[in-house]
Amino acid sequence: MDAEPRAADLPPPITEVGVVGWLRANLFRSWTSSIVTLVLLYLLVRMLVPFLDWALVSADFVGTQSSDCSGQGACWVFIGQRIQFFIYGFYPSAEYWRVDICYALLALVLAPQFIPGVPMRVRKWLGIFGMTLFPVVSYVLIGGGWFGLQPIPSDKWGGLTLTLMLAFTGILASLPIGIVLALGRRSQMPVIRSLSVVFIEIWRGVPLISVLFMASVMLPIFLPEGVDFNKLLRALIGITLFWSAYMAEVVRGGLQAIPKGQYEAADALGLNYWKSMGLVILPQALKYVIPGVVNTFIALFKDTTLVLIIGLFDVLGTVQSTIIDPAWRNVATEGYLFAAFMFWIFCFGMSRYSQNLERRLHTGHQTR
Amino acid sequence: MTRDTTASASAGTNRTAPANGPNDVIIRVHDVHKWYGNFHVLKDISLDVQRGERIVICGPSGSGKSTFIRCLNRLEAHQRGHISVDGVELNEDIRNVETVRREIGMVFQHFELFPHLTVMDNCCLAPVWVRRLPRREAEQTAMQYLERVRIPEQAGKYPGQLSGGQQQRVAIARALCMKPKVMLFDEPTSALDPEMIKEVLDVMVELAESGMTMLCVTHEMGFARTVADRVIFMDQGEVVEQAPPSEFFAHPREARTRQFLDQILHD
């Protein structure tokens, strides 16, 4: 059909587009918003300038000991001197290369997921490697005792390495367990449903701290004499089960968001329960709950620091035990900032990755 | 008045009689009852469907017609009586249920395409995972059916990018990809905008002419008139009347049928 000739499009007024438009729309819309903008700008400058001065301008970066720091700004020398302890814990320095290989593999798995040009197929296989072989390889490398590697007991593991091991394993194990629990809670079979409900409610009802205490203090009392499996493993199991209860509820939220018609359509095509869940329901449900799942991952990551109370030294633990070193004066701020920064990098990474994933999995509007 | 959209599509075509003789029954329904709590939704339904037969089920809302059609692939379970499809009894045994579901295609009011899969993947999912067809073969079949419903060019798109009419045609193609012996339609045009109803009905008419056994819950009386071998009128969980369309529309026997036809044909 032929439309009638249309009036030519005029450009929008200059005050509505570009930098000027943005400033007007967001910062100077009205008198009050202009005042708020200016006040906030003033406060920002007042706080940022001294911080930058302390952290960068007056800070000391080179040196080997406490006396190399002027005391005017941050003493980053401290971080530089103790960085190996923060990363490797008490791991013997001659064997650092084993941990380094694990870090390299981790980077190999993670980095391509953030680089836009990498083909999907490569990402997928790296992801599968990261979830299956990588944890095994890392365990063998770091723990030793195989292939002529000197065995290194787990109480020597520590620092960032320990944090990442706890978080990685916890994340990897809690999601599938959580999915199974969520499906169990919605099961038609009363026994499975009740077991899932009881499991979820018990683990969700106690603080992680008490779980860790139970794992490290109480469990050995109940176990028969001589049976003792190591503290790290116990903490890991505690963290995993604790967070899988949370994960189950997040996933259940997603399952409930799927319209009944989708279940029926899958049934009507002759798909059995597991195929219907695996091919139709879960892919949609998990997509809905990416923000919630990643939220739980982030909480899990940060809560790994609680292993401090059962005598495991994660990255925060190593920092805390170093800042009381009498050889260094007033380095607590630097130490905590460093620890916070380590956590922030990984948590922010997860957050970015999840947003990226959501965008990639978005397939247009819902059918209804 | 009713939308008589299919009249042109099938004008002049000869309706073929059920292909395999009069006594080739594919669905047997005997004395079926169903309750939701205390509410008796289906009362003593008995019905034999011949292979190749086209049946339209109509009736006021709440008459149990959707529930009935959903019992035929056990999306709803009946509590008394027997339903068998192609010799397989529908009962508690999940293997029987899955066997029957493989042979029955269903089209829903709200399409129920899987939004996370492309049109092609929607069509290939069941053939690959249930029938164990090689992917390539499943794709060829899918393409064939997508051509039949006249949207082969949309194969790579996601359901969310299609119009309602297109989605419903994909849903029909998806069901056909399983090469079902029977097709069930549960108000396939009720959720569509008026201008899209015809494209879906045209596809259904074509399918009917190909000899597919069809049971169709619909308010499209034009479709019933031109395609159905038998029209069944249900009210309050009962089959009130069944007759060939010519007789059904011209000389309804029951008062309830007349009242229903008056309402939908003349308001």
Description of the structure:
The complex is a heterodimer of chains A (368) and B (267). By secondary structure, chain A is an all-alpha fold. Among the domains of chain A are: 21-57; 83-91 and 152-359, Orthogonal Bundle (MetI-like fold). Chain A has 15 helices and no strands. Chain A has helices at residues 18-26, 31-57, 76-88, 96-114, 120-131, 133-143, 159-185, 190-205, 208-222, 231-257, 260-268, 273-288, 290-303, 315-323, 332-361. In chain A, helix 4 packs antiparallel against helix 5 and helix 8 crosses helix 10. The longest helix of chain A has 30 residues, at 332-361. The radius of gyration of chain A is 26 Å and the shape is globular. Chain B has 267 residues and is an alpha/beta fold. Helices cover 37% and strands 24% of the residues of chain B. Chain B has ten helices and ten strands. In chain B, strand 7, helix 7 and strand 8 (213-217) form a beta-alpha-beta unit. In chain B, helix 6 (164-176) packs parallel to helix 7 (194-209). Chain B is globular. The N and C termini of chain B lie close together (6 Å). The A-B interface holds A 259, 261-262, 264-272, 275, 279-280, 283-284, 287, 361, 363-368 and B 73, 75, 94, 98, 101-102, 104-106, 108, 110-116, 125-126, 129-130, 158-161, 167, 174-175, 178.
Unreliable stretches of chain B (pLDDT < 50, length at least 5) are 1-20
CATH fold annotation of the domain at 83-91 and 152-359 in chain A: MetI-like fold
Number of helices of chain A: 15
Radius of gyration computed on alpha carbons of chain A: 26 Å
Strand content of chain A: under 5%
Q: What does the average pLDDT of chain A come to?
A: 85
Q: What is the arithmetic mean of pLDDT of chain B? A: 88
Number of strands of chain A: 0
What kind of assembly state do the chains in view correspond to? heterodimer
**Main β-sheet of chain B, in a few words?**
6 strands, mixed
SSE run of chain A: HHHHHHHHHHHHHHH
User: What's the name of the CATH homologous superfamily of the domain at 83-91 and 152-359 in chain A?
Assistant: MetI-like
Beta-strand residue fraction of chain B: 15-25%
Based on Cα principal axes, name the global outline of chain A: globular
- Helix tally of chain B equals 10
| Helix-strand string of chain B | HEEEHEEHEHHHEHEHEEHH
